[in-house]
Specification:
With 778 residues, the protein is an alpha/beta fold. It folds into two domains: 396 residues, Alpha-Beta Barrel (TIM Barrel); 343 residues, TIM Barrel (Alpha-Beta Barrel). 42% of the residues lie in helices and 12% in strands. The strands form seven sheets. It has a seven-stranded parallel sheet with strand order 1-7-9-10-11-12-13. Strands 18-19-20-21-22 form a five-stranded parallel sheet. Helix 26 links the parallel strand 20 and strand 21. The relative contact order is 0.09. Catalyzes the transfer of a methyl group from 5-methyltetrahydrofolate to homocysteine resulting in methionine formation. Pathway: Amino-acid biosynthesis; L-methionine biosynthesis via de novo pathway; L-methionine from L-homocysteine (MetE route): step 1/1. It holds the Pfam family Meth_synt_2.
Length: 778
């Protein structure tokens, strides 16, 4: 029976009997070649042709690597110069007219949408940027208006398919699907998603037809938004889109690919539609296995089983994976795949020769995950000689030795409810703090970091290489701190920062100072555009053995009479932006980090640092995709962990926090429960929609909506910032408003940063002079 079925299946597949694939591969290059080439292009140091040549070489290298590793169906179209959702929008002509009016080349028009554009008096803001589901990757938010005419106009996908086919690659074309595109976009001018269904159906049908002409066998349509809560109306939208897109019979087989969770709300609808393949995540979407057990899986479709974790760096435990596949019990053909795109892990663990063998042997980055898929496939299909893979893997997992700290466990186990509560209540503290600091209305500050110029990076590299002493390194940073304090004073800022010149990354820096972390040399992961981060790896119990930020803050404090703001990264963000262990609950690790940071906060306070910012930009990021699980699976321990960090400070010590580039409006209550005194957040790209939500929720925390988009190279005008501040004052109580950029200035140039801060101060001073303090109106 199985031989007959497999013979039939080979005919269905056009003769190609595949067993392995991945959803996507990191696109920044083995050694961040794309980052460096793109940034040179932005600085006019290389031509567009040179940038395109670099990109083509990266794609060729990645396809070759996957092919040589034995991956049989290789994604093409997962490469991007900035963001895949922005690629899809441009493919379909979803480009606001203001960018088209710039009359730029297609690539420059694309970058203008992602980064903004400024040339002389001509200036256009970038599109909003938000977090991609529950990851630290950012996507650019497409915009649909009355002017939007959806149609297939882009050539990027088809050009890359041609490249791959010429190189003998068995290409699986990849594009983000229409449902996710609509779900993540914003609609202006009274337009709604349903208005664009006919044109989207036509455009996606055209994509399929053109790929068929190129003899492409498979098109992967990514629909991760199906793993969110899907309402009845959204379910109908999904069905209407795909019943029409799939209606014509094409030679191209369609894989509906989901990831980041399960598809419980639409499983039956997906199974009934005429997809040839369905991609399910069995790591974060473990409930997908129960869906199959309960409902079965259609035997006329291929199950693309996401069983290798695309978001963490640990080796796959083959025995557990094989047991999972066995439990699925489906007679359908199974293709083994990654759970998500490998975009979210570094390129190769082979580079990490500085790591101890006891750690390195347990790591699998993108390249190693390709090998894992091939070995799992050999075991799953019982190929000759495959038993050795299982024996070696079982031996590895029998020998995991994570460092254990009994003192950390004792401290964590003995926490009481009162340890998470700060007294007195916030409104009492806020009055005490106003008397303590005597700040003007609309107090100004920055988020913390100032530009990490080339000499700063060189100083750090020279210390790492042993070319300078620690004393020489510290003296350089002290000179930088003294300079930036004077600049901030000259600008007129009210609450100053020391600039963070000693920090490489807001999470990596703290990880290096805490026990329990290990670090990579080349473990870069894309965050947005050309921006990469190098997440620490949590290996053991977390503890603090010495002060981390105190020396730099105290040095800065002695240079000025103005308040200095101490700067920490919060426990939830340190956890979410690291690669966590999988053998213990997240709550346990986050609590350990919170206790370590609590000691740091108390040391800062004891050294006369009375304003302390605890950044939590990743608080929302790791929310379960389904709202019903937000509190019991996450917020019920994430929010108390933040409170634990600052619960023991004095009432007159002011606690700030910062968040950026996420949908915070739907967790406003949880953010207020953090019990911070002040919160700053990204708002400038999102047209201050969060302000309306704060006002409606009677938000009690003082707020600093970012009035300057630091992720764009353009410098805002004084008038532009003045208009933004005016909007804020009309919606929020004057006494609760702070003025600041929307994020740290680390990635900007000094010229851009100082000019923008000068505009902020000029606008703020003008608004202050016009404010009627008696009633808080202009």
């Amino acid at each position: 029976m199985n031989k007959v079925f497999n013979s039939l299946l080979r005919k269905i597949l056009g003769g190609f009997y595949m067993t392995t694939t991945i959803i996507g591969f990191p696109r920044i290059g083995h050694h961040r070649e794309l980052k460096f080439a793109t940034e040179k292009y932005w600085r006019d140091q290389i031509t567009q042709d040179e940038l395109l040549k670099t990109a083509a070489q990266i794609r060729e290298n990645h396809w070759k690597l996957q092919k040589e590793a034995g991956i049989e169906l290789i994604p093409v179209g997962d490469f991007s110069f900035f963001d895949n959702l922005l690629d899809t929008a441009n493919l379909l002509n979803v480009v606001p007219q203001r960018y088209k009016n710039l009359n730029l080349s297609p690539l420059d028009e694309y970058f203008a949408q992602a980064r903004g554009y400024q040339k002389g008096e001509e200036a256009v803001k970038a599109l909003p940027m938000k977090k991609w589901f529950n990851t630290n990757y950012h996507y650019i938010v497409p915009e649909f208006t009355k002017e939007t005419k959806v149609k297939l106009v882009g050539a990027k996908l088809f050009a890359e398919v041609d490249e791959a086919l010429k190189q003998g690659i068995n290409a699986k074309a990849v594009v983000i699907g229409p449902y996710t595109l609509l779900k993540l976009s914003r609609f202006l001018g009274g337009k709604i998603a349903q208005d664009f269904i006919p044109d989207l159906v036509a455009a996606y049908s055209q994509i399929i037809e053109r790929l068929g002409q190129k003899k492409v066998q498979w098109l992967q349509i990514d629909e991760p938004a199906l793993c969110l809560d899907v309402t009845a109306a959204e379910k109908e939208l999904f069905k209407e889109l795909y019943s029409k897109i799939l209606e014509p019979k094409h030679s191209v087989k369609i894989l509906l690919q989901t990831y980041f969770g399960d598809i419980r709300d639409v499983y039956e609808e997906v199974a009934e539609l005429s997809f040839e393949g369905i991609g399910l995540d069995f790591i974060e979407g473990s409930y997908n296995a129960e869906l199959i057990a309960k409902n079965g899986f259609p035997t006329d479709k291929i199950l693309f089983a996401g069983v290798v974790n695309g978001k963490n760096v640990w080796r796959n435990h083959y025995s557990a994976t094989l047991e999972l596949l066995k439990k699925l019990g489906t007679d359908a053909k199974v293709v083994l795949s990654s759970s998500t795109s490998l975009l979210h892990v570094p390129y190769s663990a082979a580079d990490e020769d500085q790591l101890e063998t006891g750690v390195k042997q347990h790591l699998a980055f993108a390249s190693e995950k390709l090998t894992e898929l091939k070995e799992l496939d050999a075991l799953y299909t019982k190929k000759a000689g495959s038993k050795q893979f299982l024996e070696k893997n079982d031996a590895l997992f029998a020998n995991v030795k994570h460092p254990y700290n009994p003192e950390v466990h004792e401290q964590s186990d003995n926490l009481k409810q009162s340890d998470y509560l700060r007294t007195p209540e916030r409104k009492v503290r806020q009055q005490l703090q106003k008397k303590e600091f005597k700040l003007p209305i609309l107090p100004t500050t920055t988020i913390g970091s100032f530009p990490q110029t080339r000499d700063v990076r060189q100083n750090r590299a020279r210390l790492r290489k042993g070319e300078i002493t620690r004393a020489e390194y510290d003296k350089f940073n002290e000179d930088k701190i003294a300079r930036i304090i004077k600049i901030q004073e000259k600008l007129g800022l009210d609450v100053l920062v020391h600039g963070e010149y000693e920090r490489n990354d807001m999470v990596e820096y703290f990880g290096e100072k805490l026990d329990g972390f290990v670090f990579t040399k080349n473990g870069w992961v894309q965050s947005y555009g050309s921006r990469g981060v190098k997440p620490p790896i949590i290996w053991g119990d977390i503890s603090r053995t010495a002060p981390i930020t105190v020396a730099a803050s105290v040095f800065a404090n002695h240079l000025t009479d103005k308040p200095i703001k101490g700067m920490l990264t919060g426990p939830v963000t340190i956890f979410n932006w690291s690669f966590p262990r999988e053998d213990i609950a997240p709550k346990k690790t986050v609590t350990q980090i919170a206790l370590a940071l609590q000691a740091e906060v108390l040391d800062l306070e004891a050294n006369d640092i009375k304003i302390i910012q605890i950044d939590e930009p990743a608080l929302r990021e790791n929310l379960p995709l389904r709202k019903s699980n937000w509190y019991k699976e996450y917020l019920d321990w994430a929010v108390p962990a933040f409170r634990l960090v600052h619960s023991k400070v004095q009432p007159t010590t002011q606690i700030h926090t910062h968040m950026c580039y996420s949908e915070f409006g739907d967790i406003i209550d949880a953010i207020d429960q953090l019990d911070a005194d002040v919160i700053s957040f990204e708002a400038s790209r999102a047209d201050f929609t969060l302000i309306d939500q704060l006002a409606a929720a009677d938000f009690q925390t003082e707020v600093g909506p970012g009035v300057y988009d630091i992720h764009s190279p353009r410098i805002p005008s004084e008038k532009e910032i003045e208009n933004l501040i005016t909007q804020i004052i009309k919606k929020l109580p004057l006494e609760k408003i702070w003025i600041n950029p929307d994020c740290g200035l680390k990635t900007r140039s000094e010229k851009e940063s100082f000019a923008s801060l000068e505009k902020i101060m000029e606008a703020t001073k003008k608004i202050r002079s016009n404010v009627n303090e008696a009633n808080g109106t202009l």
